[in-house]
Design a protein that fits this description.
108 residues, mainly alpha, rod-shaped
């Protein structure tokens, strides 16, 4: 039978196979609802798992960032100490050079 609108005949009755066709469509609709519910539950579960993984990754990233920040702070403190040490040696060397020059030129 071709698809198309089904009109009741003159007596007002639909074709005899119409009830069977409607029953099949109703069964398909019930099955579709069940499948869609199952798909929705799976998606919700998947989204929950993804959110948990992202939360763990974010927490891990924060911990990594804090470790890096602490390490950079230590490196910065060491660099500052090294800078002061080199500056002290340079100033001491310059003062020593001035002392040697003053002695050599008989300024002192």
């Amino acid at each position: 039978m071709a698809d198309g609108p089904i009109e009741p005949d003159a007596a007002g009755d639909y074709p005899s196979d119409m009830e069977a066709r409607v029953a099949v469509l109703e069964q398909i609709a019930r099955t579709t609802v069940t499948v869609l519910d199952r798909i929705e539950r799976r998606l919700e579960t998947s989204v929950d798992r993804i959110e948990q993984r992202l939360d763990r990754a974010e927490a891990s990233g924060r911990a990594d960032f804090q470790r890096i920040e602490t390490r950079l702070g230590a490196i910065e403190a060491n660099a500052r100490a090294d800078y002061r040490w080199v500056l002290g040696i340079m100033l001491g060397g310059f003062a020593s050079l001035l002392g040697v020059m003053a002695h050599g030129f008989h300024w002192l």
